[in-house]
Structure formats: structure tokens, C-alpha cells
């Protein structure tokens, strides 16, 4: 039986979500540290995260893999490689695959709560509003089939992005 999944949008830091079982990384193909989300998560997790990830790399756009969370206050990190906007095509399909695959991995692990950043909207250049529509639509669809997941949280870096995600979530919920 599917559970009812709560979807919420907050302003915050993806590396500081202690009440979530798993957090999602906006990774690079090599699963190394980097800027933005990857930098924040690897810094907080410590060097053992990159060490654990090395044999899992490289990953392709749209793919997701899971690791432990090391010094982060979570149990798992699910690493997704988002599409580089204007380069990895079709970018909307590849971005949707990230959300779909991350949720599928979480379900297979029996994870109850999962926090996402806004994948691809930093260094990878995906326009925030377009990306938020893809993200919300995918998460609403996939979460209908979840058995274990109870909460999905979008953690946005600034207030404007959090408000935009909330508005799109509200719109899409009313349409479906
Ligand atoms: N918490 C929540 N959101 C954040 C945080 C944070 N600590 N830091 C940045 N954001 P990005 P991408 C927002 O660049 O576009 C990396 O260097 C940010 O404002 O982290 O998928 C990797 O190594 C933006 O809206 O991810 C890859 O090479 C969003 O999170 C590449 O960048 C995603 O920004 C991945 O690029």
C-alpha cells in the first residue's frame, strides 16, 4: 500500500538537515567534492565520503547512487548527476530521472525521509523555475507509489527560491 508522502519546501542548508534520514547531493560525475551543494556536503561529511564514493564513479546524467553519510547528521547520501543545461539533452528528461532514481533508491533502502537541493540550478545552469517544475512534477508522481518514504523536503538556499518552489508545488498539486 502506498503511503501519503508530505512534500515541503524550506530555506536552508542541505548539509544541516539532522532530522532527515538521507540527503541528496548535486554531484559531479566523479563523485568528488566541488562547489555548491557537493562542496557543502563533502566538507561536512569529511574525506571518507569521497573515499567511499570513488569506486561508485563515474556516473551519468540522470543517474543516482547511494553512500553512507559519515560525519553528516544523516544516515545516507544519494548522489545525483544533474544535466548541464544546454549540453546534456533532453535536459528535462535527465533532470526528472535524477529525482525518480533518487526516490527509487530511497524506497529500496526503506528510507523514510529524504531532502533534495535544487539539482542542476547552480553550476549546471538550469533555469530555476523550469527546473522546479520538472522536480515537483516528478516528485508528486513518483511519491504516489512510495511505500516507505513519508517526507520529501526541498532545501533551497535562498528565500526567493524557496518561495518559487512552494508556489509551483501548490500549483501542480491543484492541477492533479
Ligand atoms: N544547501 C542548499 N542549496 C545549496 C547549497 C546548500 N549548502 N549550496 C548551493 N545550493 P550546485 P548543480 C543551491 O552548483 O547545478 C558542483 O561544483 C544553489 O544555489 O551545487 O547540480 C559539483 O561538483 C543552486 O540553486 O549544483 C558539480 O560539478 C543549487 O543548490 C556541479 O557543481 C544547485 O547548485 C553541480 O551543479
From TrEMBL:
Domain Macro: 1-173
Record-given protein name: Macro domain-containing protein
SMART domains (UniProt xref): A1pp (SM00506)
PROSITE patterns linked to this entry: MACRO
Organism: Pistricoccus aurantiacus
Source organism superkingdom: Bacteria
SUPFAM superfamilies recorded: Macro domain-like
UniProt xrefs under PANTHER family: GANGLIOSIDE INDUCED DIFFERENTIATION ASSOCIATED PROTEIN 2-RELATED, MACRO DOMAIN-CONTAINING PROTEIN
Pfam families found in the cross-reference section: Macro
Cross-referenced InterPro entries: Macro_dom, Macro_dom-like
